[in-house]
């Protein structure tokens, strides 16, 4: 039987104004009910929840919990893939609603680490950056280290964002980060994903990462300050 979650079940990042949607969404995923999961998000949108908040307060904490349950063998790979697939479909619908044409000439390259097969976090970060007027080159999953460095040398981006989920991806991260840090001009190098909690986050900084971020919305806030980006007008 899949785990049960109620309105008292809260994850980190699930404590905002609309936090009650998260356990509902998570439970729908646990019940393998895609229609109900989509209905939760439709209700959140109708309630006025901005897409960045849906990403940060519903999708990200729900998927962290799914990953945790998989790690402790309460979910199998098929169940984890179902949760990811449903969320990926919703991101594909929500993302185009917030993207705007590039402005100010800012360029970001967003990618999963070498050998990292998860790419949903990459897509959510890419969407939120595009909503801020960034030009984004999104590389998806498992970008080889050599090819990533070659592209960064060619494009000279302002930002490189790298995502990784498990300790098995650490060798690829350890190969990429020092090479990015050695580039001139040097991009801002940001890492995120469940790998980088605790000691791995500190190691990433030692290897050359400038920032370790907890979620895509947090990255947007940091970049607004660093690059002097005004908040989008509402309405």
Question: Your description of this structure?
Answer:
Strand 1 (107-112), helix 5 and strand 2 (135-138) form a beta-alpha-beta unit. The protein folds into 2 domains: 21-98, Methionine synthase domain (Methyltransferase, Methionine Synthase (B12-binding Domains), Chain A, domain 1, Orthogonal Bundle); 107-227, Cobalamin-binding domain (Rossmann fold, 3-Layer(aba) Sandwich). It has helices at 21-30, 34-46, 51-71, 77-98, 120-131, 145-155, 170-181, 199-207, 216-227; strands at 107-112, 135-138, 159-163, 188-192, 211-213. A 5-stranded parallel sheet has the order 2-1-3-4-5, sandwiched between helices. It is globular. It contains 9 helices and 5 strands; from the N terminus they run H-H-H-H-E-H-E-H-E-H-E-H-E-H. It is α/β, with parallel strands linked by helices and 235 residues long. The model is unreliable at 7-16 (pLDDT under 50). 41% of the residues are buried.
Number of helices: 9
End-to-end separation in angstroms reads: 45 Å
Number of domains: 2
The largest pleated sheet is described as: 5 strands, parallel
The number of distinct β-strands equals 5
Question: Taking Cα atoms only, what radius of gyration do you get, to the nearest Å?
Answer: 18 Å
Compressed to H and E, one letter per element, the order equals: HHHHEHEHEHEHEH
Assign the CATH architecture of the largest domain. 3-Layer(aba) Sandwich
**CATH-defined fold name of the largest domain:** Rossmann fold
The main sheet orders its strands as: 2-1-3-4-5
- Average pLDDT value? 89
The low-confidence parts are 7-16
**Helicity level, as a percent range?**
40-55%
Class based on secondary structure composition and strand pairing: alpha/beta
Globally, the shape reads: globular
What is the strand content?
5-15%
CATH class assignment of the largest domain: Alpha Beta
